[in-house]
Structure prediction request, 301 residues.
Amino acid sequence: MRDLTITSVTDAVIEQMGNTADPRLKQVMESLVRHMHAFARDVNLTPEEWLKAIGFLTNVGQTCTPVRQEFILLSDVLGFSALVNLLHDKTAVELGTESSLLGPFYQQNAPLLSLGDTIAAHSTGPEVVLYGQVTDKAGVPLPNALIQVWQTDSEGAYDVQKFDGAQMDMRGNFNADAEGRFHFRTLKPLGYSIPLDGPVGNLIRAQGRHGCRPAHIHFLISAPGYRELVTALYLGDDQYIDSDTVFGVSTPLVTLARADDPAAPIQGIPAIRYDFRLGIAGSGETGRVGADPAQILANVA
Ligand code: BEZ
Ligand code: FE
Prediction:
């Protein structure tokens, strides 16, 4: 029997976890316990605050549905997703285009569309054409690369928010052509507030933050033998371009729609050109940061 102090309790826990068979689980849990205990000592955590945190996390879990992932949202607003993304980028054998957050609104099985189609199945608003080429790091085209794209409508809402998951809109998948080129029509997205009607929203308000993301278009681009690219293009004229509430923006991903682009494959609407580069895949690829919310529990079960 050992009498515990505010410091020796940490070692007692770590000692008891010492038989963990999985070495990575052992490393992660030991570090987590050390940091959590250090945090509690640092802020002198009170029982009321501890209970409040338990209540908050319970509420975060209860807010999750098949189309809403409040835990990912919490991770996002704490910059934790951005950090894990940056750590993941460091494992790349070869870096292509900068990555950005997948976010909680990605959905598998979006409709496969033809080049030139619009991803606006139900919404209307000012149109833009997006075009470019998918290449390797050296600029060699990647034929038939798969381009998955999703965004808000021109009022800043995702389909899962507008239609409660009942129908898809403002998302689609395209295969680039034999030279890796792609183009499609879409609506100019609007910057938006992340969902603030849950516990994460309460936290954002308590912190005096605006809770908004600048307008952007998400991409998930893949080709056999290359590392999957999860990224987004951000519209540089958005008021929130320098204060993204989930820390997803980086300078190379900031772009603008041009009203007069003679090279655009569709004329008469503003155009955004962006060429994406994929790095080659390493043998120990560790997946991506984020997931289709509907798949998270299916994969755990
Ligand atoms: C998004 O860009 O879709 C997103 C990312 C993080 C939190 C909320 C939304
Ligand atoms: Fe988004």
About this structure: The chain is about 30% helix and 20% strand. Residues 73, 76, 101, 103-105, 194, 213, 246 surround benzoic acid (ligand 1) (CB under 6 Å).
